[in-house]
Amino acid sequence: MDANSVVVSRRIEVPSPKKMMLRFHKRALSFLVVVRRITHPFRRSRNAGYYSKFRHVYGSPAKKALTYENIKITRNAHDSNYCAVNPKFLAVVVEVGGGGSFLVIPLDRTGRQSHTASKVSGHKRPVLDIKWNPFNDNIIASSSEDCTVKLWYIPDGGLVEELRDHLIELQGHTRRVLLLEWHPTAENILLSAGFDHVILIWNIAKGMVVNSINCHTDNIYSMSFNRNGSLLATTCKDKKLRIIDPRSTEVLRIGDSHTGSKTSKVVYLGDTGRLLTTGFSKSSDRQYAIWSQNDLSQPQKSENIDSSSGVLFPFYDHDTRMVYIAGKGDGIVRYYEIIDEPPWICFLSQFISGAPQRAFGTVPKRGCDTSQCEIFRFYKLHATKDVIEPISMIVPRKSEMFQDDIYPETTAPAPSLSAEEWLSGKNGHPILMSMKSGTKVRTYKPVVYKPNENVIAVSEKNNDKKFMFLSEETKPDYRPLNNRTEIRPSPQMDHRPLGAETYNKKLLTIDTGSSSKLAKTSRNLGTKFQDVQKKWTASIPNSPLTPTTPTEDIFDQIYKTAPISGSTTVKELKSMFDPSYHGIYLNNQLHGSESDIRKKYI
């Protein structure tokens, strides 16, 4: 056989099964790549020349040592976040036998949590929602199946014992309360939505309802304020999207939302005049939609995401104009960027983790770490484990300097309006602060004081009480205990922190077995130093010492005749006490003998 025939035979040789399988896999892989590009068209923006500085944002889960373990997260089936975070604390609803409780943990207390950790346990039925006050990092509101809303004060160091004494109990709903929402700019305005299809607007400084919204015909799924708090958007089980004026309770716009029967959520997109909703289609596909607040007849854009069954929770970051969509029961967080022209929203990327999530909590922007270029942080509640895992969304930058382009001025923890101003019709934009110079700002009011009635002190009254307390004169009561009618102090004003009623109970339970120091403190008794101080500062006319004064009475006479007025320093007391003491000693020892004194001391 010649060489040409050999070459021909090799060309028509049938490939082996292994080579055929490799060719098949290559063709299948190229087909999947093409399909993926078609499925995610916004990886490559349709807008010619559009460039996003957040296109490389990625999610970074915390190390195991920085997670929160051994937390019995609630198994309640309601579509709520069950988690609230601020720059000081992490609060999460926990599973307990009977009643309702939630756990409050300082953010720096990571690792395995004790099963005996102190909880907030004041509700008679399970807790359904919790929200931190945006203007006071120590005040948290909770709603429950017992038809009440309660406010609690958490001290800076966290709880050291179980907390049952609430600040205020708000009663107005006839059925369980599912949702809570704080006003973004007005102080002491809180909204609550219940299964009685009613939204109540509370002025918590007075503990009373100031408005009631009764326009819903079925269960309310979610509610969201716009940037200045003048409009309220809601989604409902009747598949309607509503925009409401919360002060007049008038429905300004109403439209058909997602056609599916499952839960839908809504979030206002800052001051853009648009909203984003998540829900389900008739075929049970998960989808999102962009709406204009001026026209709810049809969405500006709608797109299906996938066919999973978990509820989608949207989270919006006004500073970066990014929206994050996380699904309940899966391990994916998709994030998009909002733009001011069609298609109005651009897909950036997604964070995928192996463990499914039950819910999410988010920290305010002032709690993010600017040194790591962190622009958003989730607290993931695992669905299959008793773990809460922080997930940071990071913009990759080489420089460690402060990045001004990704950290504009953000919302400060200070109200721009009082409750009365907002109710009268005024609107105010949020007060802003710099992330570069104000990252250590943690709370608007450093300490909350308890007034005479059971209400929360507003900021201006709190300052007045603080300076009144500092200007008061301390007046100790030196009367014997038998001559006093009451053993507890009765100040004109109560300067104790809110929620400190348990301190009074401890004072009432002081018995004979208590320590003398605690008993003296609680009964305002004078200590030994105060007794000496009283004798030295007494305004008694001076009288010369007599040589015949007995030694045991000399010290008492010195106290009474000391030639000082109001001076109690150790140095002055010693300088005045020593000469008198030596003179008395000489007189008593030598009986006034001048000759003996000269022989012995001169």
TrEMBL record:
Keyword presence, Cell wall biogenesis/degradation: no
GO MF, one annotated term: actin filament binding
Protein family according to the UniProt entry: Belongs to the WD repeat coronin family.
Keyword list, A-Z: Actin-binding, Coiled coil, Repeat, WD repeat
Protein name: Coronin
Cross-referenced SMART domains: DUF1899, DUF1900, WD40
Originating species: Lepeophtheirus salmonis (Salmon louse)
InterPro entries tied to this protein: Coronin, DUF1899, WD40/YVTN_repeat-like_dom_sf, WD40_repeat_CS, WD40_repeat_dom_sf, WD40_rpt
Keyword Lyase recorded: no
Gene3D superfamilies recorded: YVTN repeat-like/Quinoprotein amine dehydrogenase
